Amino acid sequence: MTDEHPTARPFLPPRKTLATLRRAAAICGGCDLHHLGTQTVFGEGPVPAHVMMVGEQPGDREDVEGHPFVGPAGHLLDQALAEAGLDREQVYVTNAVKHFRFEMRGKRRIHRKPSMTQVSACRPWLESELSVVRPEILVLLGAVAAQSVMGSSFRVTQHRGEILDAPDLRPQVVPTVHPASILRARDERAREEQRSAFVHDLTVVARAIAA
C-alpha cells in the first residue's frame, strides 16, 4: 500500500465472516480517514440478508456509538422501511466509507463528503460484506454510495427507484436518495414530498424480494 494508491485490501482477514471483517476493519489504516473520528463503524444486520443498504459514511452520532444509521437519518430510514413493508431487523445496513469525515466548526463536527479516493480505498470492505451477506437487492442510498458501485458518472436522480444490474456484482441494485437529504429539505412540505418518494422507492425493493 502507498499513499498514492490507498486501499484497505492489505487489512482484509484471510477468512471472511462478519465477525472477522468487523475485527479487521477496526484497525484499518487503508486511507487517511482512520486518523479522524472515534472508531470504525462497520455494517450490521443478518447474514445472509435479502436486502443490503449502503449509505455514504457514518455521521456524528454513528461515530460516537459505533453503529450505522442510529442518528436522525437512521430513525427516518426505520420509519420509511416500516411503511414500505420492510423489517429493519431483516436488513443489513452499512456505508461505502467506514470512518466519519468531518471538519471542526467551533466545538461542532460538521460532515464533509468523502473523496472518491477515500471511497475507493474503502471498497474492499464493501465487496467483502457483499460476499458474506449475499443480498438479493442492494439499495444505494445517495450519490456517494451509488457512484461507488455504479461509477462516477451515475446519477441517482435519473434512476432512483429502478431495479438495475450493476457492473461485476451478483445482486441487482436500487438507487435512491440518502435519508439525510430529506432532513435537509427546505420546508415541511418539501420534506414530506421527498419522504413519500423515498418510501415509494423502498416499496419497489419490498415487492422485488416478495416476488
Can you describe what's shown?
The protein has 211 residues and is α/β, with parallel strands linked by helices. The chain has one domain: Uracil-DNA glycosylase-like domain (Uracil-DNA Glycosylase, subunit E). 40% of the residues lie in helices and 13% in strands. The strands form 2 sheets. Strands 2-1-5-6 form a 4-stranded parallel β-sheet, with helices on both faces. α3 packs across α8 (188-210). The longest helix has 23 residues, at 188-210. It is globular and about 40 Å long.
Spans where pLDDT lies below 50 across 5 or more residues: none
Radius of gyration from the alpha-carbon trace, in angstroms: 16 Å
CATH 2nd-level architecture: 3-Layer(aba) Sandwich
SSE string, helix = H, strand = E? Answer: HEHHEEEHEHHEHH
Strand content: 5-15%
Q: Label the overall shape.
A: globular
What is the total number of structural domains?
Answer: 1
CATH fold naming: Uracil-DNA Glycosylase, subunit E
Number of helices: 8
Mean pLDDT: 95
How much helicity do the residues have? 40-55%
Q: What's the CATH C level?
A: Alpha Beta
What is the subunit arrangement here?
Answer: single chain
What is the gist of this entry?
By secondary structure, the protein is of the alpha/beta class.
Descriptive tags:
single chain, 211 residues, alpha/beta, two-stranded antiparallel ribbon, 8 helices, 40% helix
Please specify the SSE layout and strand pairing.
Blueprint: H1 18-25, E1 51-55, H2 60-65, H3 72-84, E2 91-95, E3 102-105, E4 108-111, H4 116-133, E5 137-141, H5 143-150, H6 156-159, E6 172-176, H7 179-183, H8 188-210
Parallel strand pairs: 1-2, 1-5, 5-6
Antiparallel strand pairs: 3-4
Helix pairs in contact: 3-8
